[in-house]
Amino acid sequence: MSPLPSPAPLARHAMAYVLAGGRGTRLMELTERRVKPAVFFGAKSRIIDFALSNAINSGIRRIGVATQYKAHSLIRHMQRGWSFMRAERNESFDILPASQRVEEAGWYSGTADAVYQNLDIIESYGPRHMVILAGDHVYKMDYELMLQQHENSGADVTVGCIEVPRMEATGFGVMHVDAEDRITAFLEKPADPPGMPDKPEMALASMGIYVFNTEFLARELRRDAADPNSSHDFGKDLVPYIVQHGRAVAHRFTDSCVTSGVEEEAYWRDVGTVDAYWQANIDLTDVVPSLNLYDRDWPIWTYSELTPPAKFVFDDEGRRGMAVDSLVSGGCIISGSHVARSVLAHNIRVHSFCDIQGAVLLPGVIVNRHARLKNVVVDSGVKLPEGLVVGEDPEEDARRFRRSAKGVTLITQPMIDALTA
Fold first, then answer.
1. Domains defined along the chain, listed by start
2. Glucose-1-phosphate adenylyltransferase/Bifunctional protein GlmU-like C-terminal hexapeptide domain location, by residue (predicted)?
3. What gap in Å lies between CA 199 and CA 374, rounded to an integer?
4. Structure pTM?
5. Which one of 175, 213, 329, 407 is most buried, by most CB atoms within 10 A?
């Protein structure tokens, strides 16, 4: 007797909808030219690649991405790296800029409105479930497991959540849950977040990931759009309304986090500040990093430029091209300099007699001779002058560049130009 067939994956009938329109002002000058999801991360990827890769790896083959703020580099990246979806296989990848589709104002007024304005496109595909994702977090997660919990629990909305230290939850939606993980209260970005009943020092925070039945979501979006008192936001309006009038259930990230078996934690990061962005990148240089980018079973897909191999030249005493505990991408040339615990994106030139430690260098950076850099983030295309010293004099760094509270220095080309103006 043959075994009963396993049920079809729910992801096959789901659509992922990625909200990628927010600037991310806490990243300061890194988002002056690009939206936060388009910021480079981990030497090769963009931040949005994590949500998109999770969707693909989970088995979701219909994806929409809502864009708004300075979206050109994000749209170009997705066109180049994510155009492999095929309509004849019932796959789709829609880039959905704010475009006056509902009213003349045009702009998305909130996260829920960014979905509401494209309901006709969503309904034309007829997905059974909608997986709403934030496009600006770094993590690996199997959405199929969250979809299964949603289906089995009979929830109207399932909210992905993580445990965070209580006073670090002020920037999140914070939940109260009962013994069955039903959400009994939802507070958006509270000044004094409530602790968990069994862990008062911790709070249960929303990851900005929601699963809905599509028909239910469409009804709620139309109801919310007609409410003149709503800000049309999932965290502020839609989810709290469903908590009060329906059935909202929490999905714990630890139940669906993807690991390769060697990580010590369920890894999720909001890289929304310069300090958090720098730290998350530098953490990748650990011998066993908390986020494993080398796991071939759950790859992070991206657009990758055609580049020659990285190159290290000169082996003279005092002029040795080398990098240790570092990620170095294609097209880089380390010429007679020492690089340690750093992350170098593609096509970077480090000229001779430089000492670079704790640096996150974005594509196309040129570091001229005799530079000394420590704990820096350098924006793409920046040309650092010969002899530049950063990371040794906090007052001097703060005068010339953007220095964070934790001592990370952000450098952009306009800052460099101002030095000689």
1. 10-285 (3.90.550.10), 311-420 (2.160.10.10)
2. 308-411
3. 38
4. 0.94
5. 175
